[in-house]
Amino acid sequence: MISDPDNDNARDEPMVFIVIAKAYETEGGEPVDLHVLVSAPDDDTAVRATLNALSEEGFLEADLDQIGMITGAPDEEPHASAYQGALEGEVAIIRFN
């Protein structure tokens, strides 16, 4: 029996997802545009981690618009340091408003 499958799709580095969202700090208030970077084994886990982090930061509601995987370290701030934080296990939230 083979214990380690031979899979060409295996990644050497952790998967870092970016979630593009709008979140609300007050009921009926203006939305805050956000990018959330999180390291996770799959997109479902990334979404759960994003929603938990936004809740911990005091957001009452969030609309997750898009999710994707970042394939390389960004060159420009604030995404470069957020990417590094995600690699270290943090959920990095970038606010645009």
Entry keywords:
globular; 24% helix; Transcriptional regulator; alpha+beta
Description:
With 97 residues, the chain is α+β, with helices and mostly antiparallel strands. The protein has one domain (16-96): NE1680-like fold. It is built from two helices and four strands, in the order ββαβαβ. It has helices at 43-56, 79-87, and strands at residues 16-24, 31-39, 61-70, 92-95. Strands 3-1-2-4 form a four-stranded antiparallel β-sheet. It starts with 15 loop residues before the first strand and ends with a strand. The model has no long low-confidence stretch (mean pLDDT 90). This is Transcriptional regulator. It comes from Peteryoungia ipomoeae.
Q: Kindly, what is the distance between the CA atoms of the first and last residues, rounded to a whole number of angstroms?
A: 55 Å
DSSP summary: helix tally = 2
**Main sheet properties:** 4 strands, antiparallel
Overall residue-averaged pLDDT value: 90
Give the ordered list of helices and strands: EEHEHE
User: What spatial form do the alpha-carbon principal axes imply?
Assistant: globular
What's the CATH class, please?
Alpha Beta
- Numbering strands along the chain, what is their spatial order in the largest sheet? 3-1-2-4
**pLDDT < 50 stretches:** none
What structural category characterises the helix and strand content?
A: alpha+beta
Radius of gyration: 15 Å
Number of domain units: 1
Helix content: 10-25%
Looking at the overall shape, the CATH architecture is Roll
Organism: Peteryoungia ipomoeae
Protein name: Transcriptional regulator
